């Protein structure tokens, strides 16, 4: 968020940043989002489900931070990321947990 956004109507602008991020995403397929300098925003079918997603999001962020501290050039192959995601959420999904 920019300084101008934070100084205006912080809560509204935080929501706007989240809406902008999800403009081309399906929030039913992505259960949370990180906003810079803020805790996680997460949702689900129930408050308990949303809390679960928030905890998972925080853990993934922590693991990512540690990975980048060990190797700042670390990346994940986009083909592999797509494979993991699309096998559960793609039009030809075949995997579910």
Explain what you see.
The chain is mostly helical. The chain has a single domain (3-89), classed as L-fuculose-1-phosphate Aldolase. It has helices at residues 3-7, 10-21, 47-70, 78-89; strands at residues 32-34, 40-42. A two-stranded antiparallel ribbon has the order 1-2. It starts with a helix and ends in an 8-residue tail after the last helix. The relative contact order is 0.08.
Keywords:
single chain, mainly alpha, two-stranded antiparallel ribbon, 2 strands
Task: Map the helices and strands.
Blueprint: H1 3-7, H2 10-21, E1 32-34, E2 40-42, H3 47-70, H4 78-89
Antiparallel strand pairs: 1-2
Q: What class do helices, strands and sheet pairing give?
A: mainly alpha
Rounded average pLDDT: 89
* Number of contiguous helices: 4
Largest sheet, if any? 2 strands, antiparallel
CATH homologous superfamily caption: Class II aldolase/adducin N-terminal domain
- The helix content is 40-55%
Question: How would you summarize what this structure contains?
Answer:
This protein is mainly α.
